[in-house]
Structures are given as structure tokens and as C-alpha cells.
Design goal:
The complex is a heterodimer of chains A (334) and B (644). Chain A is of the alpha+beta class and 334 residues long. Chain A has nine helices and twelve strands. The radius of gyration of chain A is 28 Å and the shape is elongated. The termini of chain A are far apart. Chain B folds into two domains: 21-98, no CATH class; 113-583, Cytochrome c oxidase-like, subunit I domain (Cytochrome C Oxidase, Chain A). Chain B has helices at residues 30-55, 63-83, 87-93, 121-150, 160-195, 203-222, 248-276, 289-320, 334-351, 354-368, 375-389, 407-416, 418-432, 441-464, 466-472, 476-506, 512-538, 553-583, and strands at residues 615-616, 631-632. Classes of the chains: A alpha+beta (334), B mainly alpha (644). The interface between A and B is large, with 90 and 94 residues.
Chain lengths: 334, 644
């Protein structure tokens, strides 16, 4: 009887384990790794998954078996056997899970230390976040500034991060690593990109009204393409004089609707109406737009609160970039 | 209604003046509550205006401060005074005659008594449950609103302020004024009965703690009316974002204070009750596990809740008094907020699950007709969770930028919490083994709880592992995890508890058929709603976003439709509860043939619970032991109804 029960539970358990394993294996639960760190995270993930499938199958098979076999009709008023416990069994189910979770802890701690190791001669990229845009600086390339994150493939990169206002969080899903940017302290993270391509950097920490659209383009390129990009950027002096490029790279579209740029942000005023708004404020459009970028709280579009638009674009954008942006927004035909 | 059938509402105690001679304006009640609120609001207003005028500050009428002092602090105190929560104490303090033996405010004789300050723990228990389910419905409707917005990428129905407000409000209502106090309500009803006590140790304090709760919930909801909209920084409301928000944020800061004060006072009451008011023979090792669970939970509440109170005061002071607790420019430490907040809010997840463990232990044992397996280890594992629960808070901060060395120790302690939790799950399974399982509604919810909490626990193992959490934190994987532990865990146990004690509370039986329908609808739609969130989070969708990448469109539409089904399933529950309460068949005193003390008295129990203090002679789960008794009551039989 007892042996029969164990055989049947094992049978149910194996069926459940196979089904769950298929769910775990056939569905791509993690993005295709694009960094060394994400590959290691995937290893830990599978290590944990195997243990979890075992525990899940064990518990559910006993549960299902009990319900199927020990179910009693409502009119049955008998009691079950008065088993109060079993010390041996209780020790086993305290000690075995403890060993399993410690094993998970050890594997995780090893991977954590590997994922935090930047190796020798890492490249450094500085990351600055503010509501609701990202900015990057390359100290090894003459403090080159960019609103697009461009990384050479197969190079250890240390990101040194800082936030100007509230907490943001740096996450490129396919690369796994995530780190908050905290005003007042410096944080860092290591990423080693392993394949070229385009990705998206998203903000993962609720940071205000534009949080959902606080994203930045990410490009991983070959070492030689990276060198060429740096050279090109330094030659053109940053994002340059293309207003459309400044608009997208400075993250304006996260909050503002502007039809020429195809943006649909709804946090700030609709920039398609910038001429009408300038008229209401009694200013020429060019001066009004420039003022609104540099000192956004001076004149507020009706229905919008002060303090939502960051006040530091006057510093973070060059005079050339602001001029390009103003031309672009005041109706420069493309 | 849970009304004790009684020939006359007059208990005939004492000879003091009848309490209801005063007119409607002066009588304790909602009318007096409203004008006292207004009066105290004005006092607060002129206090602020007076100080500002004397100091020469401009403007004298600073509405940001007036709303805080007048509306969120003074006004509620006035309301409590008005409904009569302080009457007895004020009489005593001012030397006027009190009526210590007049139990006019004890017990419920008509439905109106549920809307008054009442000192009967059974009435307060029902008051808690009714109030918390109002907030449950509102919180659920808000979830369906923002799920509607998430059905498609882009913005369709609302702006991001409204979206963030709804998300934050949903969590604040569900955590602070639904799950935590719903457990307090169930425990309020059951614990004194299970101990063989006539009531809680401090009945008036008990009443006061309950009335803090509608204040807290109303305060959260009122922030929708504040200029700038409701608080919109999530229920975590991290500084410094929360320090610079519109005034709605202050409603959250203060609402948490009222809800927290309610929790702390209730927990103190439970501790004193459990320690000092156990019936003769009720040793600690003879207490039902529900009592053990609430004992442990109350210790957690008393130790941890002051920390969230502190964190919310500090954030508010940064804003109102221009302190710099969390403002880096003034030398503040931003991560300090998270450390203090999570030092409460991690134990809070145990505050929201341990009472559920207690409920499940009762139900599994009774419905399997077997003693709970490993009773002492079950109690000890609760204490193990209590101790470990205070050493894991920083696992919410693995990506927050805190000191690196903290991560591995916090990971190990987090993983170790799986051990006492596992002990509980395995012991429930062993209790089922060879039992006589009765698959009625409470038992279905209990078994549903075990399987869903298992999934939540296992996804918690993933989240304990630091490298995985670094990828998964702040994504929908977290949303899936917390809903598996808080909905699949806590809420299913609350439903289980309500069905289990429904006959005792109301004296009537619910419909088994509707109960089972409710279970299966909830179980299926819950999984369809929350299981896909694991995937959508791991592949790259952050949480708390009003808009998302187009590639997540189909799965989000699916989740939204499922969530509507989940919302609809609750309708079955309300229909069942309301109709059964009014017209259900009269319940026996012990329909489950349980041994614990609450089932040995009539349904509903007499006003003072026991005619004679019971004598406890054995354990609470001695099913299958021939001739075993948990307690001996007068005459050995259940007493007739309501012989006060």
C-alpha cells in the first residue's frame, strides 16, 4: 500500500516535472543575451529553475495525490489517523531545503562577484540621468558627449552614474545588468557587450510623469566602427547642428508631442502648437522656444505645472544645439 | 446580519442615566463627527494662520500647510471625538461619572450598531471586514481602470499623472487598508474566542484602532481631489521624488500614519490579550496556530511599523519644514529613505501572510480531520520567520546603490527564510496525508493558497539570487511575484477565513455552490492575469509604466481581459455573502465539527462569549484521538443562545 502510493506519487511528480520543464524550456523566458553578464545570469537562472521544478513537482504531486485519494464524502464523520508528527521527516524537510538554498546562495555569490569584475583596463562611460532623458560621456575620448549610447563589442565597460534630480534606473534588458542612479552618490556597473546591434536603454525606477518614455537608443558596434564613430562625433562637435537629432537625443519626445519628429509624449505641452503658445505669451516664437528650453518655469503653457520640465537644458546642451533645436521647433521645413 | 437575537436592547446593567437622551447634534455619532471635524479643521486653520501671521510669513493662509494640519491631523481627531471614540476616557479624565458596568456600547442588536463606536470584539471584527472590503472593491476597480489603459501601447484613456495616481492608490489601498486590517478583523473576531476570553484586553482601544482605518482610507482617496492629483509615486513613494510632488503626496504620508497607528494599537491589544487573557489551562503550547500566527504578527507590527511612520514623517518634513533628511543638497542621504522604509515594509509582507498561515492551519486540520502535523515546529517556524524577517530588508535594494558588501549576507538570510516557510508547506501536506479531506469552499481556498503561494515562494527564490534580481528588479516579474504572494497568498487566505468563520459571524450558512464557483473563477482568472507577467517582465517590460513597447501589446491585452474576469469573480463572492447573510439557512454552532473554542459556543456567540470561563485540557487539533477534548465548558454542551 505504502509502496504503491510512493510509486504513484513519483509518477504524478515526473509528469508534472516534465510539463513544467517544457514550459520553462520552450518559452524564451529571457531575452537573447547580449552581454557576458547576461550569459552568467542565464546560468544562475537555469540552476535555480531546476531546483524549483523539483520542489514544485514534489509539492503539487503530493497535493494532487492526497486530494484524489483521501477525499471524503460530506456525510462521512470519521476522523483521520491521529498522527501528530514525525521528527525524522521534520528534520529532513528542514535540512534538505536549507542545503538547496545555500547552494543557490553560493552559485549566486560567485556570479555576482564575476559580474561586478571589470577586469584590467576597462573602458569608462559616464551616465547622467535627469527627468526624463539620458546623457553619456566618454572620458577616454576627450569627454565626448552623446545622447546615444554607443559601445564597442567585447570590451569591459564600467558605467559611472549619477542623477541630477530623482532616482532613475539604468537597464538594457538584453544585457541584464541594472543599476539605480541616485542623486548625491555615485553608482557603477560593469557590462561587456557580446554582440553588435541596436538595443534600448529604459528607466526602470518610477521617476515621475515621463517615466514610461524615458528611453535612450543603444548601439553596440565593432571596435573599428566605434573608433570611427568617436572620430566623427568629435569632428562634428557633438550631436551637431541637426535640430531633429538634438530633439530625439535629448529625449524631448518622451514628454512632448511633435509631429515632424513623430513623437507622442503627453507630459508637456504639444509642440505642434508652439507658434500659438508664443502668441499667447506675447513673444516671438524663436525667443519663446529658447526661453522655454533654458528657463522652463518662466512662462508656463496653460494647464501645465511648474517644475515638471528639467531646468538644466541650458547647461547640458551647447549653444549650437539649442539654436538648432529652436530652428527645428519653430517650423523649419525638413 | 450578525445580530444577537435578544428580546430587549436594554441590558439592564447599572442604574446610570440612559445614554441616548441628548439631541442628534450632541449625541455620539456621525452628525457630531462631521461638525467636530469642521470645528477642529478651523482650529487647525487658525493655528497655522495665527503662527504665520505672528511670524510675519507670507502668505498667512498657506493652504499646503492648512490642509495638512487642519484636514489631515486636527480634523480626523475631531471626527473621532465626534463619533464618541474618546467619550469614556474624557469623562474619566474630567472627573465626571463614568459608566464602567454599562455595556451599552457592547454587542450589536441592530444593523445600526455596526455604524457606531462599539467595544465588542466580534462587532469590531465585522466592522473591520466590511470596511476593508469597501477599499478592496475600490482598489480592484482602480486596477481594472489602469489595466484598461494598458490594453494597448500608447495613451488612450488617461494622462500619466492619473495613471501613476491609480497605480499608487491601488497598492496603498490594498496593502494598508485592505490586507493588513482584514487580517486584523478576522483575528479580532476569532482570537478572543479561541483563547476562551470574554473580549480583547482593551476594548475601547480596540474600537479606537478600528476607527483610525476609515480615516486612513478616506485620506488616501481624498488625494484624488487635491490640486495636482493623487499621490503618484507608487506605494513605496521613494525620496526625493516624493519630496517634490504636488500636495496629494502628503495625503499618502499622513494616511500611512493613521493606518500605522491603527495597526500598532491593535497589535499591542493582541499581545496583551494573548499573554494575559488565556483561559485556565490554555498554555502557549495549547494555543491554536491562528493565535500563534497573530502573536507573531503583532510582534512584527509593534517592532516594525514605527519605522514606516518615521520614513513618511521625514519625507513630509523635507517638504513642509524644509529639513534635509533625504535631500542631497542639504547633506541628506537619499538611500536612507529606502533603508528605513524597507525595514518596515519587508516585515510587512510577513504581517500580510503570517495571519493567513494561521487561518490555513486551522482549515487544513479541521477539513482533513487530522491533527496539524508537527504542531510545535509550525509555531517555531513562525518565530523563525519573525526573526529572519528583520534581517532581509535590503534585498529590495540590490540595485539601489547601497554598500556592496550588504548584498551577499542579505541574499543568504532571504534564501534561509524559505526554510521555515517550506516547513509550513510540507507540514500542511503531511496533515492532508491519509486524512478525511472535505473539499468544501474554505478547504478549496486553502489548497488553492498552498499551490499559488508555492509559485510565489519559488519566484521569491529567483528574486533572492542577486544576479537574477539585478535583471528582474523593477520589472513586471516583481509585479507577478507580489501578486502571487499577496493575492494568491494573502487574499485567498482572507477568503478562506471568511467562508470558514461565516457561520460563526453571521449565524447563517453561505451557499457552497456559489462558494465553489467563486473559487474556481478566481483561481483560473488569477493565474491567467498574473502568470504571463513573469514573462513580460523578464523579457524587458519595466513596471509602473503607463506606456510600453509595441512588442508587448498582445500579451498585455490578454492580461487586461483576464484581469476583468478576475474582477468579475468577486461579484459572485459579494452576492453569496450578502444573500446568505440575509437569508441563508441558520447555521449550527459547530458546522465543521472543529475543536477550537469559538465553535463550542452558539453561532453567533453570546455577547460576552462564554457563560463560564472554559477550562482547557488538551491541544486544539486532537482529531482522531479517542475521547480527546480541547476544553471543558459549563455542562459540556454548547450553551443556548445569548443568555447574558
Amino acid at each position: 500500500m505504502r509502496r504503491g502510493a510512493i510509486v504513484r506519487i513519483t509518477g504524478i511528480g515526473i509528469v508534472i516535472a516534465i510539463l513544467v520543464f517544457l514550459v520553462a524550456y520552450l518559452i524564451p523566458w529571457l531575452p537573447t543575451p547580449a552581454s557576458e553578464q547576461m550569459k552568467r545570469i542565464e546560468h544562475v537562472y537555469w540552476f535555480v529553475t531546476v531546483i524549483c521544478i523539483f520542489i514544485f513537482a514534489l509539492v503539487i504531486s503530493v497535493l494532487v495525490y492526497s486530494v484524489l485519494n483521501f477525499r471524503s464524502p460530506p456525510e462521512d464523520e470519521s476522523d483521520g489517523p491521529s498522527i501528530h508528527g514525525n521528527t525524522g521527516l521534520e528534520i529532513v524537510w528542514t535540512v534538505v531545503p536549507a542545503i538547496l538554498v545555500i547552494a543557490i546562495g553560493v552559485v549566486s555569490a560567485i556570479v555576482l562577484s564575476q559580474n561586478g569584475n571589470a577586469g584590467t583596463n576597462p573602458m569608462t562611460i559616464k551616465v547622467f540621468a535627469q527627468q526624463f532623458s539620458w546623457r553619456f560621456e566618454y572620458p577616454g575620448s576627450n569627454n565626448l558627449k552623446s545622447y546615444e549610447l554607443v559601445m564597442p563589442v567585447d570590451r569591459n565597460i564600467t558605467f559611472k552614474m549619477n542623477s541630477a534630480d530623482v532616482i532613475h534606473s539604468f537597464w538594457i534588458p538584453a544585457m541584464g545588468q541594472k543599476q539605480d542612479l541616485v542623486p548625491g552618490i555615485d553608482t557603477s556597473i560593469v557590462i561587456t557587450p557580446t554582440r553588435t546591434g541596436t538595443f534600448t536603454l529604459v528607466c526602470a525606477e518610477l521617476c515621475g510623469l515621463g517615466h514610461a518614455t524615458m528611453r535612450a537608443p543603444v548601439r553596440v558596434v565593432s571596435q573599428s566602427d566605434f573608433a570611427a564613430w568617436v572620430k566623427d562625433q568629435q569632428g562634428s562637435g557633438g550631436t551637431g547642428t541637426d535640430g531633429a537629432a538634438v530633439f530625439s537625443s535629448a529625449g524631448c519626445g518622451a514628454c512632448h508631442t511633435f509631429t515632424p519628429a513623430g513623437s507622442k509624449g503627453a507630459v508637456g505641452p504639444n509642440l505642434d502648437n508652439v507658434a500659438a503658445d508664443a502668441k499667447k505669451a506675447g513673444e516671438v516664437p524663436a525667443a519663446y522656444v529658447k526661453e522655454s528650453i533654458v528657463d522652463p518655469n518662466k512662462v508656463l503653457a496653460p494647464g501645465y505645472a511648474a517644475g515638471v520640465m528639467p531646468g538644466n537644458f541650458g547647461d547640458s546642451l551647447s549653444a549650437k544645439e539649442i539654436a538648432a533645436l529652436v530652428t527645428y521647433l519653430t517650423g523649419a521645413k525638413q | 446580519m450578525s445580530v444577537v437575537e435578544h428580546s430587549s436592547p436594554d441590558l439592564g446593567h447599572g442604574s446610570g442615566a440612559p445614554p441616548h437622551r441628548r439631541g442628534i447634534l450632541m449625541r455620539p455619532g456621525f452628525v457630531r463627527g462631521i461638525w467636530c471635524f469642521a470645528l477642529f479643521f478651523l482650529i487647525g486653520l487658525y493655528l497655522v494662520a495665527g503662527v504665520r501671521w505672528l511670524a510675519g510669513w507670507d502668505p498667512v493662509y498657506d493652504w499646503n500647510i492648512i490642509v495638512l494640519v487642519g484636514g489631515l491631523v486636527m480634523g480626523p481627531v475631531g471626527f473621532l471625538l465626534g463619533i464618541g471614540a474618546f467619550d469614556y476616557w474624557l469623562y474619566w479624565v474630567s472627573g465626571r461619572p463614568t459608566r464602567p458596568d454599562d455595556h451599552a456600547n457592547h454587542g450589536a442588536y441592530s444593523w445600526k450598531d455596526y455604524f457606531k463606536v462599539n467595544t465588542d470584539h466580534k462587532v469590531i471584527g465585522v466592522q473591520y471586514l466590511a470596511t476593508t472590503f469597501v477599499f478592496f472593491v475600490l482598489g480592484g476597480l482602480m486596477a481594472m481602470l489602469f489595466r484598461a489603459e494598458l490594453a494597448q501601447p500608447g495613451m488612450q484613456f488617461m494622462d500619466t499623472q492619473t495613471y501613476n495616481g491609480l497605480v499608487s492608490m491601488h497598492a496603498a489601498l490594498m496593502i494598508f487598508v485592505f490586507i493588513i486590517p482584514a487580517f486584523a478583523g478576522l483575528a479580532n473576531f476569532a482570537v478572543p474566542l479561541m483563547l476562551g476570553a470574554p473580549d480583547m484586553a482593551f476594548p475601547r482601544l480596540n474600537a479606537l484602532s478600528f476607527w483610525f482605518l476609515p480615516i486612513a482610507g478616506t485620506m488616501f482617496l481624498a488625494s484624488f481631489l487635491a490640486p495636482g492629483g493623487a499621490f503618484a509615486t507608487g506605494w513605496t513613494s521613494y525620496a526625493p521624488l516624493a519630496s517634490e510632488q504636488p500636495i496629494g503626496q502628503v495625503f499618502f504620508n499622513m494616511g500611512v500614519q493613521w493606518a500605522g497607528a491603527s495597526s500598532i494599537l491593535t497589535a499591542l491589544n493582541f499581545l496583551v490579550t494573548i499573554i494575559t487573557m488565556r483561559a485556565p489551562g490554555m498554555t502557549f503550547w495549547r494555543m491554536p496556530l491562528l493565535v500563534w500566527a497573530n502573536f507573531t504578527t503583532s510582534l512584527l507590527v509593534v517592532i516594525a511599523t514605527p519605522f514606516i511612520a518615521g520614513s513618511q514623517f521625514f519625507v513630509m518634513f523635507d517638504r513642509v519644514l524644509h529639513t534635509s533628511f533625504f535631500v542631497p543638497e542639504g547633506g541628506g542621504y537619499v538611500l536612507g529613505y529606502q533603508h528605513i522604509f524597507w525595514f518596515y515594509s519587508h516585515p510587512a509582507v510577513y504581517i500580510m501572510i503570517l495571519p493567513g498561515f494561521g487561518i490555513i492551519s486551522e482549515i487544513i486540520s479541521v477539513m482533513s480531520r487530522k491533527p496539524i502535523f508537527g504542531y510545535r515546529l509550525m509555531a517555531i517556524s513562525l518565530l523563525g520567520i519573525l526573526v529572519l524577517g528583520f534581517s532581509v530588508w535590503a534585498h529590495h535594494m540590490f540595485v539601489a546603490g547601497m554598500a556592496d558588501w550588504l548584498r551577499v549576507p542579505m541574499m543568504i538570510s532571504t534564501l534561509l527564510i524559505a526554510v521555515p516557510t517550506g516547513v509550513k508547506v510540507f507540514s500542511w501536506l503531511a496533515t492532508l496525508w491519509e486524512g478525511r479531506i472535505h473539499l468544501n469552499t474554505p478547504m478549496l481556498f486553502a489548497l488553492g493558497f498552498i499551490s499559488m503561494f508555492l509559485i510565489g515562494g519559488l519566484s521569491g527564490i529567483y528574486l533572492a539570487s542577486v544576479p537574477i534580481t539585478i535583471h528582474a528588479s523593477d520589472t513586471y516579474f516583481i509585479v507577478a511575484h507580489i501578486h502571487y504572494v499577496l493575492f494568491g497568498g494573502s487574499v485567498l487566505t482572507i477568503f478562506a477565513g471568511i467562508y470558514y468563520w461565516f457561520p460563526k459571524m453571521t449565524g447563517r450558512m453561505y451557499s457552497e455552490r456559489l462558494g465553489k464557483l467563486h473559487f474556481w473563477l478566481t483561481f483560473v482568472s488569477f493565474n491567467l492575469t498574473f502568470f504571463p507577467m513573469h514573462w513580460v517582465g523578464l523579457v524587458g517590460m519595466p513596471r509602473r509604466v503607463a506606456d510600453y513597447s509595441d512588442r508587448f501589446a498582445n500579451i498585455n491585452l490578454f492580461i487586461t481581459i483576464s484581469s476583468f474576469a478576475l474582477g468579475a469573480s468577486v461579484v459572485v463572492f459579494f452576492y453569496n455573502v450578502i444573500v446568505s447573510w440575509a437569508r441563508g439557512p441558520i447555521a449550527e454552532s459547530n458546522p465543521w465539527r472543529a475543536m477550537t473554542l469559538e465553535w463550542q459556543v452558539s453561532s453567533p456567540p453570546p455577547v460576552f462569549n462564554f457563560d463560564e470561563i472554559p477550562q482547557v485540557v488538551g491541544g486544539p487539533y486532537e482529531y482522531g484521538v479517542p475521547g480527546a477534548r480541547h476544553a471543558i465548558l459549563s455542562g459540556g454542551a454548547a450553551p443556548a443562545e445569548a443568555t447574558v
